[in-house]
Amino acid sequence: MAAADRGRAGHVERDIEQMKFTLNFILDKFRLISLFYHNGILSWYIYTHTHIHTYIYIYIYMCMNIHIYAYIYIYIYMHIYTCIHIYMYIYIYICIYAYIYICIYTYI
User: Fold this and answer.
1) Which DSSP letter does residue 108 get?
2) Span 31-40, average pLDDT
3) Does the residue 23 lie in any domain?
4) Residue 37 lies in domain
5) Cα–Cα distance list, 39 to 45, 85, 87, 90, 103 (Å)
6) Alpha helices, DSSP H only, in the chain?
C-alpha cells in the first residue's frame, strides 16, 4: 500500500512539473507576442501622428500662401516617413525571425 502511494505521489509530482513547464512556456510566448504588439502599436502611433500633423501643417501653409514652407515641410516629412517605414520593416523582420527562432529552439 505504501509503495502504491509513493508511485501515485511520483506521478503527481511529474504532472505538476509538466504543468509548470507548460505554463512557463505559454507565458513566455505571451510575453514575447505582447512585447512585439506594444512596440508595433507605438510605431503605428508615431506614423499616424506624423501623417496627420503633416497634413494639418501643409493645409495651413497653403491657406496662408506660404508655399515655400509647405515644400520644406513636405521634404522633411518624406524623410521622417521613409525612416519610420524602414524602421518598421526592419523591426517586423526581426520580430518574425526572433519568433521563429524561439519556437524552433523551444521545441528542439
Assistant:
1) -
2) 58
3) no
4) 31-107
5) 10, 14, 12, 13, 20
6) 2-63, 67-107
